[in-house]
Every structure is written in C-alpha cells, then in structure tokens.
Amino acid sequence: MNRGVTKREIILLINKIRKKIPQIFLRTSIIVGFPSETEEEFKELMDFVARVKFERLGAFLYSREENTPAYSFTGHLHYKRKLRRYRLLMELQREISLEVNRKFLGKRVEVLVDEEVQDTYLARTQFSCYEIDGVVYIGKSKDKRIRVGDFYHSKIIDAYEYDLVGE
Q1: How would CATH label the architecture of 7-102?
Q2: How far is residue 82's CA from residue 37's CA, in Å, rounded to a whole number?
Q3: Smallest Cα–Cα separation from 105: which of 153, 163, 156?
Q4: How far apart are CA 77 and CA 81, in angstroms?
Q5: How far from 65 is each of 29, 62, 76, 79, CA to CA, in Å?
Q6: 3-state secondary structure of 98
C-alpha cells in the first residue's frame, strides 16, 4: 500500500520497541482483499502476522468507496475470496490472542471496572480498548467491594481467545 518502508524495517522496529518496552501491547489494523491482492501477497501477510504476533489486531474487508484512489483500480476481488482471507487471518489472530492472554494467568493486574451485569463485573486492563477488545470477567462476591468506575486489582484465573477471567 505504498507505505515507503520495507517489511524488514518494520520487523526491526517492532523488535527494537519490544526489547526496550517488554510489556508493550502493539495494535494494528489490516485491510484484507485490496484490489489485485494475490494469494502470494496474502500468504506473505499471514507469515508477517505470525512472525510479529501483534497483541491486538483488527481486520476489515476492503470495500470499494467512491471518490477514493482505489475505486478506479482494476482487480477488485470477489467478496467470497475476501471473506475467506479475512477468516484465515482472524483464525491466526485468535491463536495469537490466546497465547498472549495465557501469559496473564496467575498474575495480578489492575483493571478498570466498566459495567455490572447480573452477577459479574466487566472490566478491562490498560491494554484493552473499551467496546473493541476483550474484557476481564470478575464474579461478584460479598467480600469484594467493587463499583463501576473503580480500579481494581484482579488475579487472572482463566484465559480465553479474547477475554480473561479474574477474581
């Protein structure tokens, strides 16, 4: 997409950042199915994502929009091809996300309590965006004094692809 930087330069930069700030969470957004995107280019993207292992990744299907430079490009991909690629990318990211979340098991993390739903609090870590990323589920109990809007130190006892469970 004419970024003016090579894949190698991006990987070197990411490695440098992670070495300097080991606890960093890197986020990216990817458009799948850009006009003329080949299977080889998509495979290269998958290999890149597998290598870098972004902690958070959002993916979107390319959508043809009037009054954009890409609107007049040739080689627009069929919806089913874009959807297949999107699903493959998100399956890879689910595996990466689970691997990332499992690193929280047994650790105490500070969370911000966003909501109270029946017998559970929904919270998020500093690494998660509200209504975009997964949540930390914290079960209610009489000995916990938690209110919506509070910061709370929660011990993570379970990890899923996108969510955590704390106590």
Answers
A1: 2-Layer Sandwich (3.30)
A2: 10
A3: 156
A4: 7
A5: 18, 9, 12, 15
A6: helix
Q: Which residue(s) pair with 35 in the sheet?
A: none
**24: Cβ contacts below 8 Å, ≥ 6 apart:** 17, 18
| Measured distance CA(125)–CA(112) in Å, rounded | 7
Q: Identify the CA nearest to 101 among candidates 142, 42, 55.
A: 55
**Alpha-carbon gap, residue 166 to 55, rounded angstroms:** 19
Q: Where are the domains of the chain?
A: 7-102, 108-166
| Fold equal for 7-102 and 108-166 | no
pTM score of the predicted model = 0.89
Which pLDDT tens digits describe the chain residue by residue (167 residues)? 567 899 999 999 999 999 999 999 999 999 999 999 999 999 999 999 999 999 999 999 999 999 999 888 999 999 999 999 999 999 999 999 999 999 999 999 999 999 999 999 999 999 999 889 999 999 988 777 899 999 999 999 999 999 999 99
Say how far apart CA 128 and CA 111 lie, in whole Å.
Answer: 10
SS3 19: helix
Write the class of the CATH domain 108-166.
Answer: mainly beta
Amino acid at 84: R
